[in-house]
């Protein structure tokens, strides 16, 4: 009963973590500034060694390599969802061979284990220092639960006679194997090869909720075995339409002042004529015609003042503009590398600073519709899956603003 409660609590923790990770990915996207390399669906495959740590064992930790070697094998396949830079959830299946020997007892055993599990991968470095696309390795912690189906045979070491068996048609698992629950915990690292491939090294301990994997029951109620694997991770990437980034609309909180100050050409002309007070200018000459030179100078000065506000937006940095952000990092990144990666011209990419980030944008548009069209093109044709529209005023980024 205690074991069932433990596994139920662990499963609930993983589900809550996955949901929370999804929410963080949606609400905290400003921390990533459009970088989509760390989110999406991944597939993994790995092979490695399997080492038993239990009762029938030559050395409590290290595997014996002489006679019957205790260093065995494992193969594993997995599919995972990376919610954000800090959290991923993985469903995996593994097949391993486990062996142990204890000469003073004149026994050894071997077991064939089919394993399935749901694990969470937690990346503490990214949580503390932020995600860095150029970092050599991405370290993670593994924790999760699963189920085992195994067949075990206990032999007499000196003669090879069979002393006991578990599974082999007598268990409650698949095809009569022995069914048992398990808890997983370990560490690992992803080493980046390209945008699509990582090399993964992982060490994980598997604790079984009984003491009978080696058929030998002792005071310690659990058996444990270890997997050390090397493999590859293929990253499918984030679909552009999956987690669209909200763009401020008229009336949104924090966006009202901006939209009310948007330059509208028809209204701008109207405002200019309204602001010039023609009535007093016309009335002055009617009341005082003799000093004609004075009103003439005033009339000449008035049109000189009016063109100035119209001419300002035509030169220098636009007062209001929209750009499409394609990448961000907490230190300068090569524009030539970005151009090659996203099939763009290096001259198209502009680098700016925003808060503690270096941000990289493409284009300068006067309307939101033009910027969104460019965003969709970059997502569709250039592989910038998380490209999004940013708002600028007088050369400074002011939005979108996120909670």
Radius of gyration: 34 Å
- SSE topology string: HEEEEHEEEEEHHHHHEHEEHEE
- What is the level 1 CATH name of the largest domain? Mainly Beta
Total beta strands: 14
Largest beta-sheet details: 8 strands, antiparallel, barrel
Number of domain units: 3
Mean pLDDT: 77
Q: What's the tally of helices?
A: 9
Task: Return the structural class.
Answer: alpha+beta
Could you walk me through the main structural features you see in this protein, from its secondary elements to its overall organization?
The chain has 403 residues and is an alpha+beta fold. The chain has 3 domains: 2-17 and 28-237, Porin; 264-317; 319-403, Sporulation related repeat (Alpha-Beta Plaits), CATH 3.30.70.1070. Helix content is 24%, strand content 39%. It contains 9 helices and 14 strands. It has helices at residues 2-27, 124-129, 256-260, 265-275, 278-287, 293-305, 307-311, 335-342, 368-381, and strands spanning 40-53, 72-82, 87-102, 107-122, 137-156, 162-166, 178-192, 197-208, 224-237, 320-329, 349-354, 357-365, 388-393, 396-399. It has an 8-stranded antiparallel beta barrel. A 5-stranded antiparallel β-sheet has the order 11-12-10-13-14, with helices on one face. A hairpin with a 2-residue loop joins strand 13 (388-393) and strand 14. It is elongated and about 85 Å long. The protein starts with a helix and ends with a strand.
């Amino acid at each position: 009963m205690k074991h069932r409660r433990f596994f139920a609590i662990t499963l609930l923790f993983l589900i809550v973590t996955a949901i929370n990770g999804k929410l963080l990915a949606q609400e905290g996207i400003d921390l990533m500034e459009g970088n989509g390399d760390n989110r999406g669906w991944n597939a993994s495959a790995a092979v490695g060694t399997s080492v038993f740590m239990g009762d029938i064992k030559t050395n409590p930790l290290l595997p014996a390599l002489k006679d019957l070697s205790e260093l065995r094998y494992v193969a594993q396949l997995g599919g995972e969802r990376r919610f954000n830079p800090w959290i991923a959830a993985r469903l995996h299946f593994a097949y391993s061979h486990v062996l142990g020997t204890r000469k003073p007892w004149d026994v050894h055993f071997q077991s064939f284990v089919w394993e399935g599990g749901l694990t969470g991968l937690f990346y503490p470095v990214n949580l503390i220092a932020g995600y860095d696309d150029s970092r050599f390795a991405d370290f993670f912690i593994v924790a999760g639960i699963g189920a085992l189906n195994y067949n075990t045979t206990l032999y007499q070491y000196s003669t090879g006679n069979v002393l006991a068996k578990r599974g082999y048609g007598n268990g409650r698992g698949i095809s009569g194997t022995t069914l048992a629950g398990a808890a997983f915990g370990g560490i690992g690292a992803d080493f980046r090869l390209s945008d699509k491939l990582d090399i993964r090294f992982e060490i994980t301990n598997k604790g079984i909720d009984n003491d009978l994997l080696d058929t030998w029951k002792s005071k310690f109620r659990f058996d444990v075995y270890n997997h050390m694997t090397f493999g590859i991770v293929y990253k499918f990437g984030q679909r552009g339409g999956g987690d669209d980034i909200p763009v401020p609309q008229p009336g949104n909180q924090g966006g009202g002042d901006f939209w009310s100050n948007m330059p509208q050409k028809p209204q701008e002309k109207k405002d200019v004529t309204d602001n010039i007070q023609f009535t007093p200018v016309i009335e002055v000459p009617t009341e005082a015609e003799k000093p004609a030179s004075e009103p003439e100078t005033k009339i000449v000065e008035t049109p000189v003042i009016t063109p100035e506000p119209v001419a300002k937006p035509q030169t220098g940095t636009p007062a209001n503009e929209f750009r499409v952000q394609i990448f961000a990092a907490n230190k300068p990144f090569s524009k030539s590398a970005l151009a090659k990666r996203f099939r763009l011209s290096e001259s198209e990419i502009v680098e700016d600073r925003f808060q503690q980030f270096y941000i990289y944008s493409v284009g300068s548009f006067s309307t939101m519709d033009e910027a969104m069209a460019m965003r969709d093109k970059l997502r569709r044709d250039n592989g910038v899956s998380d490209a999004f529209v940013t708002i600028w005023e007088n050369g400074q980024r002011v939005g979108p603003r996120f909670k």
